[in-house]
Amino acid sequence: MKRKAMFLRFVIFFFTFSAGIALVGCSEDDTDFTDDVTEDDDDVDPGKKDDFPGPTYADDYSGIASWQDRAQWNLANVHDPTVEKDGEYFYMYNTDASYGNAHEGNGHFPVRRSTDLVDWEFMGTVFPEAPAWIKDSLNSIRAQMDPPLAPIEDPNYGFWAPHIQKTGDTYRLYYSVVVTNPIVGSDPNTSWTERAFMGLAESTDLSSNNWEDKGVVISSVPDGVESYERDGGDDWSGYFKFNAIDPSFIETPNGEHWLIYGSWHSGIAAVQLNTETGKPNQLNELEDYGKRIAGRGNVDNNRWQGLEAPEIIFNEDTGFYYLFLAYDELSVAYNTRVARSENIEGPYVGIDGANVTEGAEAWPMLTHPYAFDGHPGWVGISHPSVFQDPESDQWFYSSQGRLPEGVSGINASNAIMMGHVRKIEWTSDGWPVVSPQRFADVPQTEITSEDINGTWEVITLEYEYQGIQESSDVVFHEDNTVTGAINGSWSFDESSGILTVNDHELIVDEAWDWEASPRRTTITFTGLNEAGRSLWGKKVN
Predict the structure, then answer these.
(1) Residues labelled catalytic
(2) Which value, to the nearest 10 degrees, does the dihedral of the CA atoms of residues 72, 74, 80, 84 take?
(3) Which domains, and CATH codes, for the chain?
(4) pTM of this structure
């Protein structure tokens, strides 16, 4: 299995994004990958809103990827998004990443906004340059090591994974800055890379894009178990106990503030914060850096656990905390898991009752590389922002999606990072599921049993490392039988919007068919099978 450390994640970012610098040979048209749909398919409209003006922006944005074209980006060049609402606008912040490294030299942590989660206006970046405290904190720690290490005069930085959250009248932006220099020497195969830092900035008005930087919150911490020296490129026994990237923040119903963070190394940590400062009260002992709430595999001995990007929400309707996790490497295999607990500190368990805090695999799996017909598919779909619209109470899932490698006509197609926003629905037993189609704000009308009849493309998101799950055809007949890739029977409860197929409950919704040519409205379903794998479907005829 492909692995990644802090420095390896940097290497992945560097090579993936720098591969797009030379845009010679990139497609200049705005193909939406649906040119291979047949003429007969063009005449089919399974939706009921022929005049709905849904989004038309292309998934291949390589022709407008440069910085001077940023006003046209919409959701192009989005990686590790985080979303919060202020007034009429949703605001999205993300990792410094772009096709061809177009962002370089233009500030850090890009921000855009939208009134409908569909069309997004690029607003700039949060910081014009790296905050000075990062270098000062780094070299202060190096001077206190045994033996002391010389300062790094010109550190190399990565600006990753911000998290935006409102508390009271203040918006807190937690952010990650990693120092990618080796701790000693210049070879990352002989030394672990330097530590990561998480900082905090605050604002009372997101529209102003004015931020007060509050400095360091926490940093990666060693526990003395491993040396910072590496025994070659196959040594994955991490030096740091908790890797201080991928922050998320949650305020519990009783007013406690918690920082959830971590990536690979020794798992995911939760640390309680001072409600006034947004920082831990002290960082004197190892336990001050947090308690592990999730791991993968043997959590006592494995220093390389293949999970990251934690985010916790509390659902008042179910009474559970939900811990969303990204599994595996980020460029292709990324997939999203979830576990839940009645307590913020866990233990977190999956749908199968297994203890994720103790290292069990987390199920359900909500996203996975996939492809519907007429599109090369999406990979790298994880590191989600999970947020709720305070007006509608609708939950949403936002992440990046990457195109697969080798898409014809696109140089370094896997470096295309399109922002995805999807609805979250909730099963009758209180588990979240994600829509198979990106959100397009399609008007919702009554769906009838008659609307279910016809041909659907269906995907079961079975776990396959770096594999793409492709759709198969299923026909729903008027006599309530199902044939094709699934055989059996179906029924539809029009009042609840629940489609039952062979005892599987599926949540039906009106949606936008992004793979059709031309794009059009359709209906979709999402749900889970008994093994905790997502079931996705969209009607095509």
Answers:
(1) 80, 308
(2) 130
(3) 62-434 (2.115.10.20), 452-539 (2.40.128.10)
(4) 0.93
